[in-house]
Amino acid sequence: MKLTVDKIAAVTGGVAVRRGRGECELAGTDSRNIEAGKLFVPIVGERFDGHDYISAALDRGAAGFLFSKEKLNRRDAAKKADEKNAVAVEVADTLDALGELAKAVRDSIEGLKVVAITGSTGKSTTKEMTASILGGSRRLAKNEGNLNNLVGLPITFFGMPEELDIAVVEMGTNTPGEIARLSYIAGPDAACVTNVGPVHLEGLRSIEGVAREKGALPEALNEDGIFAVNCDDPYVRDMAQKTGAKPICYGLGNERLPGCGEFVTAEDIRAGEDFSTFVLNTGEGFAQTIVAAPGMHNVLNALAAAALARAMGEKSDAIAEGLQNWKSMSMRSEVRKIAGKITVLVDCYNSNPASLKAAMDMFENFNGRRVAVVGDMLELGDYTEEAHMKAGETAADAGVELLVAVGRWAEISRKGFINKIDYNADALVAKDADEVVEMLLKRIKKGDVLLVKGSRLLKLETVVDAISARWDDEGEGD
Questions:
Q1: Strand (E) or helix (H) holding 179
Q2: 161 in the same domain as 275
Q3: CA–CA separation, 11 and 99 (whole Å)
Q4: Which CATH number do you get for residue 135?
Q5: Lowest CB count within 10 Å: 55, 100, 288, 324, which one?
């Protein structure tokens, strides 16, 4: 989408300092890959200031830029713009302005329906499942990777085609107020909060704080909106009382929300090593389906996607087909086989207490010695030590026979494991991924089931790659 200088200034509440070529395409925030003709929006972070890269963005072909009056004075901005005949618009805050531009794009796409998803765990998987269902018959866009924050969501909207039926977007947060702002930008027609758990406690302080933050999404729905309610989660059930939107309920338990017209559930669930089959019951009809990922948490994610699809008018058969077409994402509940001898459960995109428990539960689908690599969980604030102690206890409850804890809090996780086990097991501590590889290559054997779980900072996917390369190339374990 192109906007004139006057439109950019009006949308952002800014002042046009230089008019340049009169218009810009929207928009980029990274000077290293800004596309020619785009508007560069410099973002201020903890360790960088995008205003330092305005000239670099213009050199790469940006047609204009926003700037904060607190970071750059008008005279210097005008000089930079004049050198390249570029647009320059002064705004109060560039991040806020980015959001306003994205909202303008969202509002400009005629007939667009937005489905928004947040939650402590499962939001990316639910987004992908929902997109797989709805994309079968409609023009659909979604946010990719981790573009789910106050920068990523606007970038997602800027990349959307002007002719579009549905946008499926996930929203992430680690600070109070982010979900409310993201909801304002996206203007959702249907929404889901997958669950509430102890994540991002450094910024959100408590699980009640997490619930308040996530609850801003359903509160943003109007009376014509639809809220997909996870009835298995008491915090999410409470959210349904605070929105005027119509509820569509889903779950695996017996809890039902009073006055809920539809209840989406799964019956006759059968779990395999890398899939789950079940009969989908949407209230509208029944359909046999299969989800290409293990674990009951992924069945629940599928029900969330089914409920959102029902909100968009899809029938049971189409929902089941869309779920069957969904493919699991790399490093999220991914099952790999190494040389046909070791099963590896790769779940190292992120980690928190709830997702760790769900990952450990996947062991139930496999036969073999249970080996777990458990890495640090981040942004837990005052709950950090207790959470890592419980991580070790969770591994013990799952029957892990060899635990390798890695990272700053590894010794705490090891202690929790040792204190809880009542069977023969080993527990090791590693400082980083390389040391994990060294330890595992000496200890893993044919028939093992290996779970690798940790936050992205630790890059534990390299553990899987290294072990796979050694076994595949050198025949280890024969």
A1: helix 178-186
A2: yes
A3: 10
A4: 3.40.1190.10
A5: 288
Token pair for 359: 């990952």
Burial of 266 (0-12, 13-18, 19+ CB in 10 A): buried
CA-CA distance, 469 to 461, in Å (whole number)? 12
CATH number at residue 72: 3.40.1390.10
pLDDT band for position 458 (50/70/90)? confident
User: What DSSP element (H or E) covers 88?
Assistant: strand 87-91
Q: CA-CA distance, 418 to 83, in Å (whole number)?
A: 66
Beta carbons within 8 Å of 467's beta carbon, 6+ residues apart: 338, 342, 344, 437, 440, 441, 444, 450
- Amino acid type, 246: K
In terms of phi and psi (left: phi > 0; alpha: psi -120 to 50; beta: otherwise), the region of 220 is alpha
* Stretch (H or E) spanning 463: helix 461-474
**With 90 as the cut, is the pLDDT of residue 347 above it?**
no
pLDDT (tens digit, 9 = 90+) per residue, 156-195? 999 999 899 999 999 999 899 999 999 999 999 999 999 9
Q: What is d(CA 187, CA 435) in angstroms, rounded to the nearest whole number?
A: 47
Percent of the chain whose predicted confidence (pLDDT) is above 70:
98
CA distance 372 to 70: 49
Q: Which residues have C-beta within 8 Å of that of residue 465, sequence separation ≥ 6?
A: none
Average pLDDT over residues 204-227: 94
In 298-397 the beta strands, taken as DSSP E runs, fall at 334-338, 342-347, 370-375
> What is the C-alpha separation between 311 and 248, in angstroms, rounded?
7
Residue among 293, 295, 371, 290 at smallest CA distance from 338: 371
The conformation of residue 332, written as its DSSP 8-state character, comes to S
**Residue 279 burial (10 A CB sphere; 0-12, 13-18, 19+):** middle
Checking if the pLDDT of 116 tops 80, the result is yes
Q: Are 375 and 364 in contact (CB under 8 A)?
A: no
| Domain assignment of residue 444, given as a range | 334-474
Stretch 127-150: mean pLDDT: 93
Residue 299 and residue 342 share a domain: no
Can you tell me the distance from the alpha carbon of 377 to that of 390, in angstroms, rounded to the nearest whole number? 11
Closest CA to 408 of 466, 346, 354, 458: 458
- What single DSSP character describes residue 424? -
Q: Which residues pair with 428 in a beta bridge?
A: 404
129 CB contacts (<8 Å, ≥6 apart)?
A: 291, 301, 302, 304, 305, 322, 323, 326
